[in-house]
Amino acid sequence: MSRIELVSRRGFLENAFGVGAFVLGASIPPLKALAKSAATSNIAPDTKPIADAAWHPGIFIGVETDGTVRIIAHRSEMGTGIRTTLPMIVADEMEADWSKVKVQQGLGDKAYGSQDTDGSESITDFYETMRKAGATARLMLVRAAAAKWGVPSSECSAQNHFVLHTAGKKIGYGELAALAGQQPLPHPDEVILKRPSEFRYIGKGVPIVDLNDLVTGHGVFGMDITVPGMVYASIERPPVLGGTVRSLDDSAAKKTAGVSGVYTIPTFKAPHAFKPLGGVAVIADNTWTAIKARKALKIDWDNGPHAIFDSETNKKQMIETSQKPQKVARKVGNVEAEFAKPGGKVIECQYYTPLLAHVPMEPPVATAHYKDGKVEVWTCTQNPQEVQNSVAAFVGVKPEDVTCHVTLLGGGFGRKSKPDYASEAAYLSKQTGKPVKVVWSREDDIHFDYFHTTSAMYFKAKLDDTGKPAAWLQRSVFPTISTLGDPNAEYGRGELDMGFTDVPFRLPNQQVENGPAKAHVRIGWLRSVANVYHAFGVQSFVDELAYAAGRDPIDYTLELLGPDRMIDFESEHTEYENYGKPLKQFPLDTGRLRGVIKAVRTKSNYDQRKATLAKGHALGFAAHRSFLTYVAVITEVEVDPKGKLTIHRMDLAVDCGQVIHPDRVMAQFEGAAVFGVSIAVHGEITASDGRIKQSNFDTYKVARMTDSPRITNVYLVPNGATATGVGEPGVPPVAPSIINAIFAATGKRVRELPVSKAKLA
User: Fold this and answer.
1) Which residues of 611-649 are buried (b: 16+ CB within 10 A; e: fewer)?
2) pLDDT, tens digit (0-9, with 9 covering 90-100), for 160-173
């Protein structure tokens, strides 16, 4: 596979192909968010759109006369393999020889539909689209061959980069390129997708397109970008959200050799959204000089109203709120009446999780060049279209006048879909008249993150004579992501549907509530979003109830699930967003959750191991659905007499529907195991006087090799259902599985993360 090229849609069409090439502009049904926008695409000469409806253009396919097949990857690559997987789907349906495929990274362009590589949606949203695009190209090539031979197309078929005729004729895709370009686009009803038994790549996988570059050090990340005449910026940002410069003495910074200027970036006007925080930027001829001179700045800050923020005080307030009646989000039966009845065992539990930082290995970095009212940006972004929109708004140009080149991402986890750093670079380029690279240090990355929110959760259940909950009450309190657009927002309805409203158990009386909480820092989504804390609370509470009832946690969970069913939120008059997807197409299927639970129990040899583990060792279990994917986890831990925790093994069973690239899916869940360990054992951001206390990996710790599971096994549960996401669903059940294992080993229940703060001896 050749090196990845960055290419715009227009550049792909005008510059990528020689005379006689066949270029297909596939069209796809609009996503819900784009239903009102997009017109049709008419890319190939003398062709019509696939349908007359207002469909927005999708990925583009081109065939060179030498047989090279070029496929645009319009999503961002950050280790998930999506830059391989989406083109791989096209190539499979197209019957292309993978060795002759060249993948090109698309620039930011609304014509592609959503390019936001967030929410584990790339496959869910574009699997069928990619298949139809490939199948359309295949049919056009077959028809081109039939026209050349003067035979019915029904006598021809495509196979591994050739079209074959029943009489023995054979012709390559390259030879057909010019003729295929003259074919009209088929009607959708004429496009026949392959049967799963015919897949050549889907479900089997191919080497990732970036593999050679990554292992040889040639992969281009945001930090690797260089532009002629480029200068470097390091920015001193307000230490408290919304702070402004009261006074500035930059004389010492300007005297530093190599410094060419000092510029003030205005503080945002609420809502902060993805706008830069503001601050003072030092411009120099290299990053180190800029950082050194930045330290010489003397700034007196007006910290504003958020200087009151203290994480410990805030924690107490949130816990108090969670212990009082709040807004009801879901109600089944009558929990108040059941709790008022005499008898039964009542269990009450309080859980808490702190703020978290994203800390991708590559901190935010962007290079921008403002010239003649247009901006060119090179950056590690999960959403190039948001780069276009945010940069345009901040420097005063039109989004279409912003070109965004997408590099590899050294990790993202949701942080790099928020392009404040790209706007900083563009603004400073406009001020200096030169290309500017803005480099965030690790300290900047941690101090000024869009933090994963803190949460307080309260649970109360009443067990009947069989040990099952006759009543179940739960409350969640957290500063909401909605403050991105509304600084006064205090409730998080969308987040509530991530693992809290959708508790899958068959309960006669259940009530879900959400309490208010103010945000004093930027709140943003992090890998698996609210499922991080909601799975921790719900799955820990289930484990507590199982032990209170004297039952094995897996047996107890299976009983609580009740008969296999699709949960009907509508009949309960409960709003449920279902990750933006229709419940009819992606129902909450308790049978699939049961399936992964049984699979992980069997594959991990749970029952035998549980009975034979050495002293201090124990197994913990958790299962959770998020982003439409079902995951169950069993974790083996050891807690020695001094309280030292060792995670020996983790087994994960996954049902994500049709698996596209098994190796990449397994890698995502292996990575999720380590990510989840970081959250459970170490992750914690705290603040005092509005300022974040942590600054680098010495104070904000992440899992090292010694913390990670010694063995991680991932089992993919076969399912022909529609493919769903895999980037995030592995994270939520990891923390509760660890917590539940610790209890089984020690009898000590950890109800507050991180585990490192707990005394386990």
Assistant:
1) eebeeebbbbbbbbbbbbbbbbbbbbbbbeeeeebebeb
2) 999 999 999 999 99
How far is Cα 143 from Cα 166, in angstroms, rounded to an integer? 14
DSSP string, 553-567: HHHHHHHHH-S--B-
Q: Are 98 and 91 in contact (CB under 8 A)?
A: yes
In 443-550, the DSSP E strands lie at 455-463, 469-477, 510-515
Does residue 163 sit in helix, strand or coil? strand
Q: Of the candidates 149, 175, 181, 148, which has an alpha carbon nearest to the alpha carbon of residue 162?
A: 175
As beta bridge partners, residue 692 has 687
Q: Over range 544-569, report the average pLDDT.
A: 97
DSSP H/E element including 486? none
Q: Are 536 and 622 in contact (CB under 8 A)?
A: no
- pLDDT (0 to 100) of residue 606: 98
Residue 179: CB atoms within 10 A of its CB come to 19
% helix, strand, coil for the chain, step of 5: 35, 25, 45
Token pair for 745:
């080993």
Say if CB 230 and CB 222 are below 8 A apart.
Answer: no
Q: Compare 589 and 184 and report the one with higher pLDDT.
A: 589
Q: What percent of the chain has pLDDT over 70?
A: 93
- The Cα–Cα gap between 233 and 297 comes to 14
Could you tell me if 13 and 23 are in contact, meaning their C-beta atoms sit under 8 angstroms apart? yes
pLDDT in tens, 235-283: 999 999 999 999 999 999 999 999 999 999 999 999 999 999 999 999 9
- How far apart CA 761 and CA 756 sit, in angstroms, is 12
Give the three-class secondary structure for 55: coil
**Model confidence band, residue 9 (pLDDT cutoffs 50, 70, 90):** low
Q: How far is CA 434 from the centre of its chain?
A: 34
Mean pLDDT, residues 126-152 taken together: 95
Rounded-to-integer distance, Cα 85 and Cα 668, Å: 13
Give 209-233 as a DSSP string: TTHHHHHTT---BGGG---TT-EEE
Give the pLDDT score at 42: 22
CA distance 241 to 230: 30
Q: In what order do the strands lie in the sheet with 22-28?
A: 5-7, 101-106, 69-73, 56-63, 22-28
In 3D space, the residue among 443, 383, 377, 455 whose CA is nearest the CA of residue 412 turns out to be: 383
Cα three-residue angle 40-722-658, rounded to 5 degrees: 120
pLDDT for the residue numbered 62: 87
